[in-house]
Design a protein that fits this description.
The structure is a homodimer of 210-residue chains. The radius of gyration of chain A is 21 Å and the shape is elongated. With 210 residues, chain A is an all-alpha fold. In chain A, helix 3 runs parallel beside helix 6 (119-144) and helix 6 (119-144) crosses helix 7 (148-169). Chain A has helices at residues 4-23, 35-41, 56-83, 88-102, 104-114, 119-144, 148-169, 175-208. Chain A folds into two domains: 1-54, Homeodomain-like (Arc Repressor Mutant, subunit A), CATH 1.10.10; 56-208, Tetracycline Repressor, domain 2 (Orthogonal Bundle). The longest helix of chain A has 34 residues, at 175-208. The first copy, chain A, has eight helices and no strands. Chain A starts with a helix and ends with a helix. The interface between A and B is large, with 37 and 37 residues. The first copy, chain A, binds a DNA duplex (30 and 30 nucleotides) through residues 1-2, 4-5, 8-9, 12, 34-36, 44-48, 50-52, 56.
DNA sequence: TATAACAGCGTACACGTGTACGCTTAAATT
DNA sequence: AATTTAAGCGTACACGTGTACGCTGTTATA
């Protein structure tokens, strides 16, 4: 049981994953990739693909998992930076934008499959994004003493805005323009935060006067 | 030049458009439609397709135009209702949700092609949405006396939130759930409006004290 | 050392695709 | 009335697709 074999298998599995990831781009969606193309890019015979995935769909779901992992990495990194002090919103947006720059394709996958054509994919993507949202919701609730529903609405709106901005950022090559987009996004998140806090305060006053 | 011929041509052209629209659904994206399928659905021989569009892409762009038209219809309708009094945000969201219910497929097209695979499509969709955003921006600027940049950020955020909610609504069949989503969206838009107004006020004070 | 497991390959097949080409037939033009 | 125009059809082709099947060579097990 030395594992030479299993090791090799894992390696070509990664080659398939990377091949698919590489072929994703602005002009190429996952659903437009063919099994043959991916196998070829990975240096495999088409039929060997089946030794690793039963389907292109299965590969796709694996990629979504990969994307979820990246998202969690993002959260960890942002938390670390926040712990060192600074504006929470600014740091979060900046970290997110860096992620998009270095992992454009995997982020594109999330965006496309979110409103994509396969129910399984959509469900998987939505799950990842929901996890992300919930994590943020928790943080907001504790940090700002918000009611659960207010925190959720804020988190949900914030994630929507940030993901949308990320999608736009993917189409911008000019750095100055991207920075401007980031600034705008930060301001929009502040709008939302402000509104949420205000509702929360109003409710608190109402409770006190009862 | 009675136009019997041109009339007939226009009719089958519409049949092609409607055929494509009909085949769009949660499980079927435009890019996954084939020329042959659309022609068949329209009751045409595959090769006759070319008498009307040189490409599936050309048909697609026509559909995006159609969607833009629908969007403008929406704005008109919302304005009429608003003129009769009531909460602007509430009426807008409600009108939007009605549109989605009755024109799900065309709205899906917009959502999908926005982050889709064809540069031409993306550009066309972005143009339509930008128009929509600018219209809202104008309104906000005048109605709330906002600075141009603040109004734009609010409009942009609002449109993002509403479109995202629309996308979610497409996957919900339960009416009560959809209503809840609408309520949440309304609240989120109020957050944003609140934040924008607050920034605007702060700026005004700053100017006064100069 | 003999045997089983299994990753990877090549061949082969049926199927759906876009589209070139020429024909028919009815409307439009002369 | 004679001629031109053009919408729609059928045939035909080359191409890319997923995948079934059997073979080979190497690794793991007994």
């Amino acid at each position: 049981m030395s594992g030479v074999r299993a090791q090799q298998k894992e390696k070509t599995r990664r080659q398939l994953i990377n091949a698919a990831l590489k072929q994703l781009s602005a002009e190429r969606s996952f659903s437009s990739l063919s099994l043959r193309e991916v196998a070829k890019e990975a240096g495999l015979a088409p039929t060997s693909f089946y030794r690793h995935f039963s389907d292109m769909d299965e590969l796709g779901l694996t990629l979504v998992d990969e994307a979820g992992l990246t998202l969690r990495q993002l959260m960890r990194q942002a938390r670390q930076r926040i712990a060192k002090g600074g504006s929470v919103i600014q740091i979060s947006v900046q970290t997110f934008m860096e992620l998009i720059e270095s992992n454009g394709n995997i982020f594109r996958l999330l965006l496309r499959e979110r409103s994509g054509t396969s129910a399984a994919f959509r469900a998987a993507v939505i799950r990842e994004i929901r996890y992300f949202t919930m994590e943020l919701c928790d943080y907001l609730q504790k940090a700002n003493q918000l009611d659960a529903d207010v925190a959720y609405m804020q988190a949900n709106a914030a994630v929507t805005i940030v993901f949308s901005a990320g999608s736009d950022a993917l189409d911008i090559e000019d750095k100055a323009e991207r920075d401007q987009l980031a600034q705008q996004t930060i301001q929009q998140l502040r709008f939302i935060a402000r509104g949420a806090l205000e509702l929360s305060d109003r409710r608190k006053k109402l409770r006190r006067n009862r």
